[in-house]
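Researcher: Let's do a round of design. I'm pasting the structure tokens now; please hold your answer until I've finished.
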């Protein structure tokens, strides 16, 4: 695709409508998505509870960049590019592991957890080890949630930390327990998942289990009265209730919304599935819904946290990693069981993957054309607007990105 064609597509964008086919299917536009969004913004990588001890690490690969996230001295969490400073081999091959020192498998250069080069065997005496530490990756923690940025100069993350931290704090994620993880690979464009998870137009017909738990999800009931009542109760418990709206110049969102009367958790029978989590004393916390584009979604109820990490692998393929966290003191079999804990989001998520795959298949049709969003899809329209703006910015500043 020529640069002029991309400019043309951007000029033809009709606000309030889904995007032109190429934005979902073209490899060239996917290249722009990578350069202008995935390599520039902040990516959710995991939670600190996955790496509780010094030397514990996870790796997260986005495109050609693999990142090592490792717990170092005094609990500090570091992020490094997973490329050896000798001749570039990847250092950690696994998605999770433990290594007090990181040793490259090729010629055994050894790095400390903070990325500094500890040993480089058979190198000359005057070799300057200090200049060959692993390349650092920007990292920020939000109360135990790990975000990284591959950019040399990432966009400002302070507003995200400021707005999301009060919502996450009460779950005490750093001390929590990773109860279960599940990954999916689905045939769709990453933006269709982002769009799907910002509207409930589809919830009534597609998600009977979700609608049974969340008042108003079917768009047929008013939430106003129950919201006033629940907010007063949440406030009295010190829980944050003020939502954080998504603006076109921000890339995050936060809300707390109510479950139906008598529903304690995101579960099939409405009953709690684990002991209250972190600082929560009961099951009256509603649902905390957090988003940080392009790849982070979190829904938390009084007894568990569910995170969704999206990774765009190509224009037509995404990997989705789901993680369920419970209170750090919860014991499997006594305080929760995996099946009950995970069935709600497995069912709901799998319904969504199918919708997102169908959506992509239909967009590939030669007769697809952008369609109008309903008023209840305002948040989708805002996301698409944000996305288009990011591409426009990048295309205008062609010095920072080479157009295909
Ligand atoms: S490439 Fe890592 S030690 Fe040679
Ligand atoms: Fe959905």
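Researcher: That's everything. Go ahead.
Model: Designed sequence:
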């Amino acid at each position: 695709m020529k640069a002029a064609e991309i400019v043309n597509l951007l000029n033809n964008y009709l606000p309030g409508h889904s995007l032109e086919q190429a934005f979902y299917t073209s490899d060239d536009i996917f290249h722009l998505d990578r350069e202008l969004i995935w390599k520039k913004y902040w990516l959710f990588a995991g939670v600190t509870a996955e790496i509780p001890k010094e030397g514990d690490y996870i790796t997260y690969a986005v495109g050609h960049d693999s990142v090592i996230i490792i717990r170092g001295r005094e609990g500090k969490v570091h992020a490094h590019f997973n490329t050896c400073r000798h001749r570039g081999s990847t250092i950690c091959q696994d998605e999770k592991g433990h290594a007090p020192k990181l040793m490259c498998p090729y010629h055994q250069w050894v790095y400390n957890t903070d990325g500094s080069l500890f040993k480089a065997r058979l190198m000359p005496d005057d070799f300057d080890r200090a200049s060959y530490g692993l390349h650092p990756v920007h990292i920020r923690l939000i109360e135990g949630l790990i975000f990284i940025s591959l950019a040399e100069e990432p966009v400002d993350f302070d507003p995200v930390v400021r707005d999301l931290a009060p919502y996450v704090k009460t779950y005490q994620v750093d001390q929590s327990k990773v109860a279960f993880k599940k990954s999916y690979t689905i045939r769709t464009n990453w933006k269709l998942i982002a769009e799907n998870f910002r509207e409930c137009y589809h919830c009534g017909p597609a998600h009977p289990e979700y609608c049974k738990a969340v008042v108003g999800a079917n768009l047929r009931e008013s939430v106003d009265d129950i919201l006033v009542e629940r907010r007063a109760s949440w406030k009295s418990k010190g829980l944050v209730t003020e939502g954080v709206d998504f603006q076109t110049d921000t890339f995050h969102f936060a809300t707390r919304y109510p479950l139906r009367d008598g529903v304690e958790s995101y579960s099939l029978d409405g009953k709690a599935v684990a002991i209250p989590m972190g600082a929560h004393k009961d099951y009256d916390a509603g649902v905390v819904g957090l988003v940080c584009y392009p790849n982070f979604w979190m829904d938390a109820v009084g007894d568990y946290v569910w995170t969704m990490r999206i990774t765009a692998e190509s224009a037509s393929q995404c990997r989705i990693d789901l993680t369920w966290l419970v209170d750090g003191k919860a014991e499997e079999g006594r305080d929760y069981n995996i099946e009950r804990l995970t069935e709600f989001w497995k069912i709901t998520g799998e319904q969504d993957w199918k919708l997102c795959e169908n959506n992509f298949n239909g967009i590939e049709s030669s007769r697809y054309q952008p369609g109008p969003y309903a008023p209840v899809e305002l948040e989708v329209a805002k996301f698409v607007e944000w996305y288009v703006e990011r591409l426009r910015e990048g295309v205008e500043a062609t010095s920072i990105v080479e157009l295909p």
